[in-house]
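[Protein data]
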Amino acid sequence: MFSKFTSILQHAVEALAPSLPLQEDFVYHWKAITHYYIETSDDKAPVTDTNIPSHLEQMLDILTQEEAERESGETGPCMEYLLHHKILETLYTLGKADCPPGMKQQVLTFYTKLLAHIRQPLLPHINVHRPVQKLIRLCGEVLAAPTENEEIQFLCIVCAKLKQDPYLVNFFLENKSRRTEMKTPVLTEGTKESALAPDTGQSPTEDQAAQQEGPQAAAAAAAASSPARNNNNSSNYNLVTSLLNLTKSPDGRIVVKACEGLMLLVSLPEPAAAKCLTENTELCELLTDRLVSFYNALPQSMDPLDIETVESVNWGLDVYNLKEDAAVFTGKRALISFLSWLDYCDQLIKEAHKSAAAVMAKAVRERFFVSVMEPQLMQTSEVGILTSTALLNRIIRQVTSKALLREMVFFLLGEETEAETSATMAQNPLRHRLIEHCDHLSDEISIMTLRLFEQLIQKPDQHILHSLALRSLEERNYLENKPQEEREPLENGQPHDAVDLEEDPLFGDDLSPDSRLSGSEWLSSSPQPSPDHLKSDGKTEVHKIVNSFLCLVPDEAKSSYHVEGTGYDTYLRDAHRQFRDYCGVCQRWDWRNAPKPLEKCNLDSPFFEGHFLKVLFDRMGRILDQPYDVNLQVTAVLSKLSLLPHPHLHEYLLDPYISLAPGCRSLFSVIVRVVGDLMLRIHRIPDFTPKLLLVRKRLLGMEPEGINIDHVTLLEGVIVLEEFCKELAAIAFVKYHAAASSSP
């Protein structure tokens, strides 16, 4: 009661007294705080019952006013006084002792506001960054502490300052062997004056040197004296450690703020900080342990559709309603928590310094993908395989950081780059198992795994395509090995004339000149068709290629012309858009040496199409006997591969006129065999054409489901085959036009 009266009286006196010069006023408020510790005998009264908060607030106001009245960058006498008398050191000592109770909270607030409000750089001063470093060590010590909010605000303002001037981070990489922290004295009656002899953590000689050096000299010394730069691996990164501790807070807002602080720190360009971050903190452990924990909390069985369709998740925006989530599907809350943390890991790695990103991504691969996901994917339970594959598909879809994507790809496909053989295709057990799952007895597993690969081949990583297809086609040994004199002569590695499709009636409005792809050397280098389908004037006849696909399915097996809006031209716009998107991704890849000239290819080596293409071709060969949904997914993957602008893939998948080596097959030859089988079976089915048309209309929702139709699987397969051939024709046309328009 008495202290409150004293405070009121003091404010009244201050209001009536004439205004003092700023420095005198500043010194007055500081001495009022120090006198409290000398004169008071009540150590247990909370700080809010004293004048200390008011004096600290006045000191901040004076410092802010002083800076506003001076030219930019000029240090005023009040700030000089704060630095010279080591006021921040003293406040740190008082905050550490929390005397009077609540003082730590006041000190944290003072530091935070000082760094936030003062525009001139303070951290380069040794009498600022030393106490700031020591105050950082006090943060996150106690979980759910009453000062958590002030702690996270303080840490975040330090992170923001480091983001503005990244070199300052070297002040916060603390050498373990040199740090000798003095014990804080207990503020009893006999030791109160120790508050005025602050814990500086340095020798008197260092103190004297610090008095003489300015912020510029300190800044220059920061990088040179960094423990990490001196090849000393025993460094503390206390700022990261304190933030990591606060990520374990039960308060979600504190956790998000701590994660934001870590995001700022990992993005700093200083190599020393990146090295210390991954070698001397538990950041990698936090990321992976929490990812594993969230994954293990998921139900053992989940509907793949729920996993695929749950709303996209951004970390930090994890708003939820337990009752609503449980009503949608069991495990939705756990799934969103997992995907939210995955998004954080992905974004953190994307923002991180390159060396730190590589280490964090490798940790996720080893501690999550290999340790947790691989056993799930390799299990024999069909329910478990389906759930884990659906989750992996969602993970692939969500990952965008280059480093994490590369580690995930290596996990799934291995790091091998040499051509596959039938003997080596099983050397990576997980890759082999996943590809085999594309042809699983369970149609659900087959469809989900095919979707996974469809998602994978659209990711911007060159190794994916090389591992799944390109390494098997590199030598072009699928071609018949003709003598050199029988090959078509080329000029400078190109055919005599470029293709001219400007007036092509099929071109129409779907591919306007304004939307054509920009020219590039690699795009126009697709292997050219063989000489038996060249025009008399030497120009490549693209219509023969298009018609080769359009005419594959015999007229009696076609049904699209009976239904409006299902012609070949409907695929052109989609093919153009998708091809343009692929070109944007692939243009960064080193495909400049493709196509490999035939004279440099080892055509005598035995050809193996690769495990992935083998399974796809096998499934394509059974298109008349497989469920409709399986066929849709098989053709979707093959069309994505066909869209890729690599010359060897284009030649192997889209050129009907190549002469195949004995025993080899291409996509076109597989479809030819399917059509041959179809011709034999059509005549065994009465009323084939009416049934085919009815099935098409039912699939389009134009006819209600009625009586069962026999041979429905075959009829649906014929419809998918017809549509797939039209799609391939459109892709071939778009790619030939792009190559022609980019040729000189």
The beta strands are 174-175, 235-236. The two ends are 92 Å apart (CA to CA).
